[in-house]
Write a structure and sequence with these properties.
3 domains; 389 residues; alpha+beta; 4-stranded antiparallel β-sheet
Length: 389
Amino acid sequence: MGLLGTTTQQSYYNQSVSWTGNGSTLTFNVAAGDFPTRPTQQTDIRVFINNIEISTSNYSYNGTGVGDTTADNNYNLVFTNSGVNTAVQATSGAPLTGLVITLQETNPAEQYGNYQYIGIQDLVNNFIIAYVGLDKIINKVKRADVFFHAQRCIAELSYDTLRSEKSQEVEIGPDLTMVMPQDFVSYIKLSRLDRDGVEQPLYPARQTSNPTSLLQDSEFGYLFDSDGSLLVQRDSDTWEQYKNANDPDTLNDNINEENDDIDQTFFLGGRYGINPENATANGLFYIDSVRGRINFSSQLNGETVILKYISDTLGTDGEMQVHKFAEEAVYKWLAHAILASRINTPEYLVARFKKERFAAIRSAKLRLSNLKVEELTQIMRGKSKHIKH
């Protein structure tokens, strides 16, 4: 059987399946191969006869199957005689002879383009088949050990080899904060969306932060709770003042203020030649890792911000997959990790798979870089132009 299985192209592109009516049949079965993931509720589908949508009162659908042959029969579309559209249905509710019945999924659970990836279950199965057994590199190994090393491999490759980039688009409220994504590891880029749909880059504010602010009494002594632990306030005065500042006014005040301490701020750079990363009107941000938030400067109030970040792709079972360009790198990684963690493994064998792992990862990086000669040629055409000053 091919890797695409029995799923039809219609189910992939249109997320639908079709039958032909005969004027008497009321029940139509949705088979396992009709959808990569079959709809389970009537609210998940729309039904058409001869391109005319049928009212939900005129049919029933309840996908309660769990995979076996008997349960598969429960994935049925059943027409009734309630609210019959006589233009396309008989009085019993059955679609007329020769007319096409189409069941379309309203909110597809599948993601397009998944064929380019291979899941962790298949990776583990393939590795055990190819590398584990009698007269093979590894005599025997626990499946749990292979899963552990496979997860570590996917996480490490996600940081600098695989396309693990994720993104979120958020409108910033008056509190000027954005909660870190649940699977956030590190950020790639933050930008502000302008009115033309172009992403304008944001740069980090390196001269401020949100430190832990201790509560003090009128005598500047520390305050403690009943357990003797220091009391702290939710947000520091540093962050509150930065959040409430109007950047253009603050800039002017700092430049005109006669105070040697102001020379240490990045605002004063405007006098002599400002630091390029601060020469922007798009806004600034900094990451408060302790509180799990991203804080923004005041001009981003009400603006739409796009965060692109790196995840280790281990957040959910569905994410634990690898691009097929890096499949061989995973197998070499697993072989080296398992052999290197065992006693009495010949060093020459460990060294061999270490070299093969390195070569496979390098090949994966080249493949995933997706360099196109035509695109590079177009980009480089203007590089030889003289820039006039």
